[in-house]
Amino acid sequence: QVTLVESGGGLVQAGGSLRLSCATSGRTFTNRPMGWFRQGPGKEREFVGVIRWRGSGTYYADTVKGRFAISRDNALNTVYLQMNNLKPEDTAVYYCAAGSPSGSSYYPTASSEYNFWGQGTQVTVSS
Question: How crowded is residue 87: how many other Cβ atoms within 10 Å of its Cβ?
Answer without folding.
Answer: 14
